[in-house]
Specification:
Layout lengths: L13 H12 L2 H4 L1 H9 L3 H23 L10 H6 L2 H30 L8 H16 L3 H28 L14 H10 L20 H29 L9 H9 L2 H36 L16 H17 L2 H28 L14 H11 L7 H19 L6 H12 L4 H6 L10
Helix pairs in contact: 1-8, 1-10, 1-12, 4-9, 4-10, 4-14, 4-15, 6-7, 6-12, 6-13, 6-14, 6-16, 7-12, 7-13, 8-10, 8-12, 10-11, 11-12, 12-13, 12-17, 14-15, 14-16
Length: about 450
C-alpha cells in the first residue's frame, strides 16, 4: 500500500518543526550523558560533542537531501523505496524506531536520577516506571494536549539551560581546562561514538515531512537549524560543567555543577529542568515512534495491528508497544548500555540514508529537491564516519544493537498478516492528517510565519 497525499490546509510550519526536533534531542543527552563523557574524557568532552556533531551533520545533509524529495503526505523516508526498494525503506524506518525507543528509555532513566536529587535514598527505578506509565497515558489522550505540553516544556528547558551556560561563561577560567585530555585522545574519540545518539532526534521531522509547509525547503532547514541549536547547547552545558571545577559527575551531573556555579537554588532549578527536559524528550519519542509505526503499517511493511488506531484517532497499539519496549530496556540495561543501543541503531539508519543519497548523487540528483555539492563525496564520507563509530562502542553492545535492528526483518516478513479494515482506517487518518504527530503540531500557518 503506498503512502497517500494529505489534504486540508493545516500544515506544520518551520518554527514548529524546529521545536519538535529540538524537543526530541535536548533531553538525556545534555543532562545525563554529558557527565558520563566528562568522566571519560575530561574537558576534551567538548571536542567529543563537536566531533559527533560534524559526523552527524554530514549524514543529516544526506537525510535532508533524501527527505526533501518526499511527496506530499508521505514521510521523508519514502524516497528510499524508489531508490533502494521498499524493504530498505522499512529497515531504515525500523532502525530509527529502535534508536528512538532506546533514546526514550535512557531519558527516562535520567529523569529518575534527577528526581532523586530531591528524594535521596529513594528508588530511581520507581520514578522511571511511574513516568513511563504517565507518558503512555498522556499519549493515549488528545494529541493536541500532547503538542501543547511539548511546546511548553521545550521553552522552559531551553531557558534554564541558557541560564546555566551564562553562569558557566561568567566563571570561565582557563586553568579548569587543564589537563584538557587527561587520559589521552582515545576517550575523546570513543566518546564521540557514544554521542551519536544525542543528535539523532532531528529525524523525527521526516516522519511528517509531507505535511510540513514548503517541505522541500523547511524540512532541510529544520534539520540543520535544530542540529546547530542543540550543538551550541551541548557544548555550552559541557563547558559550564567543566567550569564548576568538579572532576567526577554522577548521572545528575548538570545539577551538581549548577549547585557549585549558582548555589543551592541553581542546583534545584537545573534538577527541575532536567526532569521536565527528559520527560519532554521521552514524550516526543513516544509521539514520534507512534507515527513511525502508523506509517510503516500504512505502507504495508508491518502487520496492521501494530499501527492500529481507534475511530477517534488514538494510536493505542503503537503507544502501548513503544512504551512497553522502553520499559523493558529501562529494567534490563544501564544507561550507558541503552545509549549504545540507541547509537548503533541510529548509525544503521543514517548509513542507509547515506547510501540512498549516494545513489541519488550518482544519478546527478535527477529529481527535484536539495542537491548536495561535490557529487558522491558527502554521502561517502558520511557513511564512513558513521560506520567508524562501531569499534568504540564495544563488540557485545554493537552486536545486540544490530540484532535489534535485524529483528525488524522478521516483522517485515509477517507484513501480510494484516486486516483490510485497519488499512482503510490508517489510509483515512494519514490522508486527513489525523495521525497523532500531525494533530499534535499542526495548525493553520499564520500569514507572518516563516514559509
Amino acid at each position: 500500500m503506498s503512502e497517500i497525499s494529505s489534504k486540508g490546509h493545516h500544515q506544520i510550519g518551520l518554527v514548529s518543526a524546529v521545536a519538535l526536533c529540538v524537543g526530541t534531542m535536548v533531553g538525556g543527552g545534555v543532562f545525563a550523558v554529558s557527565g558520563i563523557v566528562i568522566n571519560k574524557a575530561g574537558p576534551s568532552a567538548i571536542v567529543s560533542y563537536l566531533l559527533a556533531a560534524v559526523a552527524v551533520l554530514l549524514s543529516a545533509l544526506c537525510f535532508a537531501a533524501v527527505a526533501s524529495r518526499a511527496k506530499e503526505g508521505s514521510t521523508g523516508y519514502e524516497p528510499i523505496a524508489t531508490v533502494l526498494g521498499p524493504m530498505w525503506r522499512f529497515l531504515t524506518m525500523w532502525a530509527f524506531y529502535v534508536s528512538a525507543i532506546a533514546g526514550g528509555a535512557f531519558m527516562l532513566v535520567a529523569f529518575g536520577s534527577y528526581l532523586r536529587y530531591f528524594f535521596e535514598g529513594s528508588s530511581a527505578l520507581v520514578f522511571e516506571l511511574v513516568a513511563a506509565v504517565a507518558l503512555i497515558i498522556l499519549n493515549l489522550g488528545p494529541a493536541d494536549l500532547v503538542g501543547r505540553a511539548e511546546t511548553v516544556m521545550v521553552a522552559f528547558k531551553i531557558g534554564v539551560l541558557v541560564l546555566l551556560i551564562g553562569f558557566g561563561l561568567a566563571a570561565f577560567n582557563v586553568h579548569d581546562l587543564t589537563p584538557f585530555a587527561p587520559r589521552g585522545l582515545g576517550p575523546t574519540i570513543s566518546s564521540a561514538g557514544l554521542l551519536f545518539s544525542v543528535y539523532l532526534g532531528f529525524s523525527v521531522v521526516t516522519n511528517v515531512a509531507g505535511v510540513v509547509k514548503n517541505s522541500k525547503r523547511n524540512v532541510p532547514l529544520a534539520i540543520l537549524l535544530s542540529l546547530v541549536i542543540v550543538t551550541i547547547v551541548y557544548v555550552g552545558i559541557t563547558l559550564a560543567m567543566v567550569m564548576s571545577g568538579r572532576k567526577v559527575f554522577g548521572i545528575a551531573g548538570a545539577a551538581q555543577a549548577a549547585r557549585i556555579l549558582i548555589g543551592p537554588w541553581g542546583g534545584a532549578l537545573i534538577a527541575v529542568a532536567a526532569c521536565v527536559s527528559t520527560l519532554s524528550g521521552s514524550n516526543a519519542v513516544i509521539l514520534g515512534c507512534s507515527e513511525l509505526l502508523i506509517r510503516m503499517a500504512g505502507n504495508g511493511d508491518i502487520p496492521s495491528v501494530l499501527g492500529r488506531v481507534s475511530r477517534s484517532g488514538h494510536a493505542y497499539a503503537s503507544v502501548l508497544l513503544s512504551g512497553g519496549l522502553a520499559i523493558v530496556l529501562m529494567v534490563t540495561g544501564g544507561i550507558q548500555t541503552i545509549v549504545t543501543y540507541c547509537s548503533v541503531a541510529g548509525i544503521v539508519g543514517l548509513v542507509l540514508m547515506d547510501v540512498t543519497a549516494f545513489q541519488m548523487a550518482r544519478k546527478h540528483w535527477s529529481t527535484p529537491g536539495l542537491r548536495l555539492p561535490f557529487g558522491v563525496f558527502i554521502p561517502s564520507v558520511a557513511a564512513i564516519l558513521a560506520l567508524a563509530q562501531f569499534p568504540s562502542l564495544g563488540l557485545l553492545n554493537v552486536s545486540i544493537g544490530l540484532v535489534l535492528v535485524a529483528a525488524g526483518l522478521v516483522i517485515y516478513a509477517l507484513r501480510h498478516h494484516s486486516h483490510r479494515q485497519d488499512h482503510e482506517t490508517l489510509a483515512r487518518h494519514i490522508q486527513n492528517m489525523e495521525t497523532p504527530l500531525s494533530k499534535a503540531f499542526r495548525r493553520p500557518a499564520p500569514a507572518g510565519e516563516l514559509g
